[in-house]
Amino acid sequence: MLKTRIFTAAIMLLLFLAALFYLSAVFWTILLLALTVAGAWEWSKLAKFSLTYSITYLLLTAIVGGELLFTLSDAVLSDPYTPLFLWFYVASSVFWVLGATCLLKSNRSIRNPIILSLIGWILLFPTCLALFQLRAIDPLLLLGFMATVWISDTAAYFTGRAWGKRKLAPGISPGKTWEGVAGALVAVSFYAVAWNYVAGEKAHGLLLVPLLLVLVLMGIIGDLFESLMKRHAGVKDSGNILPGHGGILDRIDALTSTLPIAALALLFLQSEL
User: Fold this and answer.
1) Long-range contacts of residues 131-135, Cβ cutoff 8 Å, at least 24 apart
2) Mean pLDDT for the chain overall
3) Residues in CB range of 262: below 8 A, 6 or more apart
4) 83: which of 9, 128, 155, 192 lies 20 to 30 Å off by Cα?
5) Residue 70: beta bridge partners?
């Protein structure tokens, strides 16, 4: 199982890096739209939509997502820092800071399909737009933010296994510990300092460290929220498209709660310069 996970992770990383640096804007758009639709399909399963409702949801996701992406692709040609979809990032941030934390605290299952549909779009659309816009600004910048999540997850996993005793959310994800959270924060702190040193003035050092630490905490919330949805749905993984890793949502859960916030912070910082 571990070998399968490592092999799949290595292949995914290589394919992602190739797409990030070599795909044209058009094909990057198509890739993001395909991932968004795949994520919507998995979300419809977690939400237990009927087949008819799921198909309708997928079609609406493809239509709306495609329109948003193509609109953004035109806007970034003249200004990569365009605030055109700023309100999407704001809505995502508000949901993760307030809505998701309240749902995690209450541990209540949502049954209303309209509310579940909207939550699915709040997860997927801002993440998709952030992936597109951050790449348009600088592919290395997008990679740096994503690496924050990967480093956080890895550090939390190994720290938790070595020293974890106090459970973070035993009713939602028993494997996560407060010691793992501490390990993630320490590891990302070192990463932020290294990033700031390498990037120099471009990194805006006074803000980079606190921003990345916020992303660590938000990534944990995103991870826990998907675990909550899977627990309510009675499944282990959101899908089985990735051997050893589950589904698309299993791989992007922390990104849905971090990349829109990273994009929002970057656009706000740019507007202040």
Assistant:
1) 131/32, 131/259, 132/28, 132/29, 132/32, 132/69, 132/72, 132/73, 132/76, 133/72, 133/76, 133/80, 133/82, 133/85, 133/263, 134/259, 134/262, 134/263, 134/266, 135/20, 135/28
2) 90
3) 130, 134, 145, 211, 215
4) 192
5) none
Alpha-carbon distance of 24 to 119, in angstroms, equals: 30
Rounded to whole angstroms, how far apart are CA atoms 212 and 225? 20
The Cα–Cα gap between 267 and 31 comes to: 24
Q: Which pLDDT score, from 0 to 100, does residue 109 have? A: 85
Whether residue 198 has pLDDT greater than 90: no
Tokens of 55: 């198909």
CA proximity to 133, closest of 32, 257, 253, 38: 32
Packing angle of the helix pair 248-256, 113-137 (nearest 10 deg): 70
Contact indicator for 180, 157 with CB cutoff of 8 Å: yes
pTM of the model: 0.93
Token pair 């899908």 in the structure block, residue: 239
The residue among 4 and 93 whose pLDDT is bigger is: 93
| Res 258 pLDDT > 70 | yes
Q: Is residue 23 classed exposed, middle or buried when 0-12, 13-18 and 19+ CB atoms within 10 A define those classes?
A: middle
Confidence tier at 201 by pLDDT (50, 70, 90):
low
- Cα 145 to Cα 110, 157, 184, 266: the distances in Å are 31, 19, 14, 11
Please say whether the beta carbons of 56 and 224 come within 8 A.
no
Residue 145 pLDDT exceeds 70:
yes
Q: Which of 196, 212, 194, 192 is nearest to 204 (CA)?
A: 196
Residue-level pLDDT at 179: 95
